């Protein structure tokens, strides 16, 4: 199990304390697209399916991390 997979499991067990940089790194690793054009949100995207915007300031609220995890699951990177 690699570094990102371990971080993903940690994120699933505790959605508190994560920052937007953590989610961007996870998205890069798993091939999830994201965009941020002069806004206070980063939007993670599954092309042709759905998007999940997350505020970028400080620590991310757990509800946004849980939504990000659901997005990963829908993209096929969920729990096995």
Rg for CA atoms: 12 Å
Poorly predicted residue ranges? none
Cα separation of the termini: 13 Å
Q: List the domain count as a whole number.
A: 1
* Largest sheet, spatial ordering of strands: 1-2-3
Going by helix content, strand content and strand pairing, the class is: alpha+beta
Largest sheet entry: 3 strands, antiparallel
Number of helices: 3
- Helical fraction equals 40-55%
The helix-strand sequence is HHEEEH
Name the beta content range: 15-25%
Report the average pLDDT across residues.
Answer: 88
Number of distinct beta strands: 3
Q: How does the overall form come out from the CA principal axes?
A: globular
Task: Give a short synopsis of this structure.
This protein has 80 residues and is α+β, with helices and mostly antiparallel strands. It has three helices and three strands; from the N terminus they run ααβββα.
Structure description:
This protein has 80 residues and is an alpha+beta fold. The protein has one domain (3-77). It has 3 helices and 3 strands; from the N terminus they run ααβββα. The chain has a 3-stranded antiparallel sheet with strand order 1-2-3, covered by helices on one side. β1 and β2 (41-46) form a beta hairpin. The longest helix has 16 residues, at 62-77.
Strand and helix map with partners:
Elements lengths: L2 H11 L6 H11 L2 E3 L5 E6 L3 E6 L6 H16 L3
Antiparallel strand pairs: 1-2, 2-3
